[in-house]
Amino acid sequence: MPAFSRRTFMLAATALGAMTFAGAALAEVPALAKKDTYKVGFAQTESNNPWRIAQTNSMKAEAEKRGYQLVYTDAAGSAAKQVADVNSMIAQGVDVIFLAPREEKPLIPAVMAAKKAGIPVILLDRSVDPSLAKAGEDYLTFIGSDFIQEGQRVAEWLAKNANGKSKIIELEGTTGSSPANDRKKGFDEAITAAGGFEIVASQTGDFARDKGRQVAESLLQAHPDADIIYAHNDEMAIGAISAIEAAGKVPGKDILVLSIDGGKEAVQAVVDGKIAAVVECNPRFGPKAFDTMAAYANGDKIEGKLVNDDKFYDSTNAAAELANAY
Ligand code: GYE
């Protein structure tokens, strides 16, 4: 190799290295070109409940409506698989990745890998650890509910309507997930502030029906005086109803059950008097997710957090709202 070309090669290599380094350290979210159509990734966390299925359907319907190609993956409840799913989307050269991160910390490498590959990430429904990745920097934005407020709304309903019931079993969502962390924080703080209540046990049921049933069963045995169950989602609340009935007690009478999500089965349980109240967590993400992506490609400024509106169901409106529940 002649000396000059070798030197040129080495300079180029050094420059490339520096660029890669600078690229990785860039403070901005990768840009998104304005195009007629896109190849978009949606990394779902699991599909074990009506909420997830409603969310997936909403994303698929909206992609189809716009004529975009959707690369869909389901991590089946494994954060490790979800990281691999995102890496495979990066390898397939998607334009944008919609990510519903199962847990706050384990999905950080996926967010960072997409950023490094120049692909903007939009977080859907769950967030990542804010001390490790930032909106407007490492990912574009978070679209979802205000989970702290959801927990507070349950506590506020109890403060007004518990009628002397006071001993609470809390069924937490997936450990390390943002909705579990925040639904606990919002509820625990508000119920403590309300006064007169006691959380006698708080344990994870992993947002799953059968796990919720099992955990409720053992906690009801350990705390036979418990008269309220607050579940971080409908699935665990429905599991808890089975546990209450198996213990020979009447849900809605002996034990008040409260939950978050607002799927049809839970709203029906409110109509039937088995669930006292449900805070809706809106799963219909499609239109907002794709509108946000289009706005970004258009050069609009995107806020770091886009909060969905959630309804609230109790005996006063459940029958009338049932038809609108997902
Ligand atoms: O409440 C639950 C789902 O992340 C907000 O995850 C979502 C929660 C939802 O599996 O049912």
TrEMBL record:
Q: Where does this one sit in the cell?
A: Cell envelope
Task: Please give the superkingdom of this protein's source.
Answer: Bacteria
UniProt-listed Pfam families = Peripla_BP_4
Its primary localisation, in coarse terms, equals: other
Signal sequence span is 1-27
Sorted alphabetically, the keyword list is: Signal
**Periplasmic binding protein domain sequence ranges:** 40-301
Instruction: Name the CDD domains on file.
Output: PBP1_galactofuranose_YtfQ-like (cd06309)
Cite the InterPro entries for this sequence: Peripla_BP_I (IPR028082), SBP_2_dom (IPR025997), TAT_signal (IPR006311)
Similarity comment text for this entry: Belongs to the bacterial solute-binding protein 2 family.
Question: What is the name of the protein in this document?
Answer: Ribose transport system substrate-binding protein
Species of provenance: Pararhizobium capsulatum DSM 1112
